[in-house]
Amino acid sequence: MNENKINLPLRPSRLRKNDTIRRLIRENHIQKDDLIYPLFVRNGKKLKVEISSMPGVYHFSPDSILKEVESLLELGLDRIILFGIPNDKNETGSEAYSKNGIIQQTIKDIKTQFPEMYIISDVCMCEYTDHGHCGIIKNNEIQNDITLNFLQKQVISHAEAGVDMVAPSGMIDGMVNAIRNTLDEQKFYNIPIMSYTVKYASSFYGPFRQAAESKPQFGNRKNYQMDTANCREALKEAKLDIKEGADIIMVKPAMAYMDIIKKLKDSTNLPIAAYNVSGEYSMIKAAEEKGWINGNKVRDELLLSLKRAGADIIITYFAKEIIQKIK
Ligand code: PBG
After folding, report:
1. N or C: which end of the chain has fewer CB within 10 A?
2. 3-state secondary structure the chain
3. pLDDT score of 204
């Protein structure tokens, strides 16, 4: 073979020959400011109990979550999304909007002691209802419009407790409009809405539902969450949410839906959030435990891919360990 005969001036691999040049042309980075960290709170004292399906993720009681918040702030992680597991679940999910509910109390406590922690609250009924659905049920069907009034009550209870941002996650038609109206009516003009705009009816939420004890007791959520097969419908949802006043739009889950992230990014100028959900986290942790993959490398590859797809914000259970690494 005569090498000299080959004329090949265009060699993309020239720019991959060492780490310096690779870093120089790198298009995307994971930065600590991209990340939001989810935290779970439940009643009790001095609790920090690992969720068995989510290694490294814990249920905290209201007192021990304060210690966790302090350590997150020391790491430079100052954005959390809070999920509550109430003592009492009932038909109308009344703890969701009670002044003294677990979330309302926790928001107040954190804000009193650590006002610099930016708190986002999940706004949904599913953790609080005994049937595990995301709204009020009649004749085994979710009642969309009645549910809106409950979401309004929930959001105001969070706002009064001092929340910084609200994140409605129930895929209830008109939820952004209803929430924006009530916030403005009560003069909470400056609380932004991060909407779970495109939330698919996904099996990737399994470990979360175990953690939040929010598995639907009958049926499933396919008649309000989106069908995995659909893409144009995601654009329709995004259009509506933007019209209704969403400040940030979210795609959930993240990993299997990067095409949707990209489509939304190209079609709007709002910040796009991607929720790297529990199943995505637990699969990596489980395969790592088995020694089948290098968990940290797979994690970094996945999160970087979300950035490449166009995510501006990533909600992820990996946030704390990544920030520990960046530090
Ligand atoms: C609803 C909510 C869910 C998640 C975030 N908010 C659960 C659901 O829709 O069943 C899932 C998050 C995850 O899987 O990590 N309150």
Report:
1. N
2. CCHHHCCCCCCHHHHHCCHHHHHHCCCCCCCHHHEEEEEEEECCCCCEEECCCCCCCEEECHHHHHHHHHHHHHHCCCEEEEEEECCCCECCCHHHHCCCCHHHHHHHHHHHHCCCCEEEEEECCCCCECCCCCCCEECCEECHHHHHHHHHHHHHHHHHHCCCEEEECCCCCCHHHHHHHHHHHCCCCCCCEEEEEEEECCHHHHHHHHHHCCCCCCCCCCCCCECCCCCHHHHHHHHHHHHHCCCEEEEECCHHHHHHHHHHHHHCCCCEEEEECHHHHHHHHHHHHCCCCCHHHHHHHHHHHHHHHCCCEEEECCHHHHHHHHC
3. 97
